[in-house]
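Retro notes - structure team

What went well: the batch runner handled both jobs without manual restarts.
What didn't: labels got mixed up in the shared folder, which is why I'm recording both outputs here explicitly, each with its sequence directly above its tokens.

Job 1
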Amino acid sequence: MITWFITGCSTGLGRSLAEAVLAAGHNAVVTARDAAKVQDLAAQFPGTAYSAALDVTDKAQVADVVRKAEERFDAIDVLVNNAGYGYRAAVEEGDEQEVAALFATNFFGTVSMIKAVLPGMRTRRSGTILNISSIAGRLAAPGSGYYSASKFAVGGVRRPAKGSRSARHSGGRRRAGAFRTDFAGRSLQQTKTKIDDYAATAGPRRKENDKTHGTQPGDPERAAAALLDLVSRSELPARLLLGSDAVKIVGNEVDGQRREIGAWKDLSVSSDFTSDDKNI
């Protein structure tokens, strides 16, 4: 039995993962901004589930919930940074306060959680951190530039060099494809500013025009099972793609990047010093 700490458990992948972890007999700290949405899990699994209200943008609350979780279960073995939401806007349309709030949750909230659990993991010299990112962290679709930037930032919080690792995988990322959750429905936010010149680019992906909700190929329950399987393994990848769409889209992106690197290689390497330079 190990102890999981999962953020954003009210719906979607977080909820499915919490249910799977508890059904497998593990301890789980299940959190949501509204604690009422996860209290049923604590009632169903009174010995192994601890439910708590948690807004990852509130550093004092983060520290308090982590402390109480460690008091309840002695240690946090697996942290899953799942809390986050989407935001649609062309770059010019983005509202500064809305974008700041997006980063406060998707990026800085993730960082706050990592910093809160790492002292315990360092002391024990063990622990696993799973940061739920997105294929948007590899490429930006029209209208999702700010959301992609927040996920690119999550991808940049990498584990320390191998020789200095305090946790088994402190900063691993799971790049998820489209899953049949509330991401493109209730939780998706967007700018109130709409500029006509972006109607053909960002426009089709505005919430009122997006028809993907309820049609996504990913099954959150199967994703939860995959994450349980992943954590049980002795070796973990730096990045795990979840979903066939993620494998296809990111694979195509990587192939495209390799082609572009090759096409521009001569110009790229022309910026190096050469053996003919006097200052070498």
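Job 2
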Amino acid sequence: MSDFFTPDFFTFMAIGFLAQLIDGALGMAFGVLCTTALLSVGVPPAVASAMTHVTECFTTAASGLSHAYHRNVDWRLVARLAPAGMLGGAVGAYLLSSIDGSVISPFISVYLIVIGLYILYKAFRPSWPRDVRDWIIPYVGGFGGLMDAIGGGGWGPVVTSTLLGRGHDAKRVIGSTNFTEFAVTSVISLTFILTLGFTQLSSAAGLILGGVLAAPVGAIVVKHLPVRPLMIAVSLLIVLTALIRLL
């Protein structure tokens, strides 16, 4: 038992809890924050992304059910996002598993910086009303799934930020993207397991426990927390940590 509850376990648990708390409230940042943290302690890019997505199988299920319970989910939006997101995620996971981690790591850090700046941009961009018939939804889902697998995070920053920026209802977008992420991350995780094996992913236990504990809280927070200040804080955190990793 003492071998299981190591300092790394509690570190990962804290990372999972804080990342999921932010993700559940904002609809983004769990994957980006976790992957950035794992990369910063020397975990290879493919394994970091795989650990994050295995963890998200549990956290997104808990978060998605919590959002559904609180009536934050638009099922028509889920139906349009999920198929494209799952396809893009499978392709991205396969590509990342086939690339040398030392080669792609700097590019992932640059990607994370771009995502962080994109979130900051979306925090100040005015929106206009859109409904679920918006033509861009499937394309955003496919690109979000692809970037999520390659970067170890990106579903929320790409999908949630884009839909919020186009004027979709914030509560529905956050709830629906959290719920849809379970299907997307399950496909990504399965692809990683088939290509990497499961033994490299056992360290995800701390991330899983912390994330599951935080998931129900995020669905409640989303109703009360101001979105813009949190988006600004998340964007600056992502850019800073990724920049340190890149340098």
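One thing worth noting from job 2: The mean pLDDT is 78.
We'll revisit the folder naming next retro.
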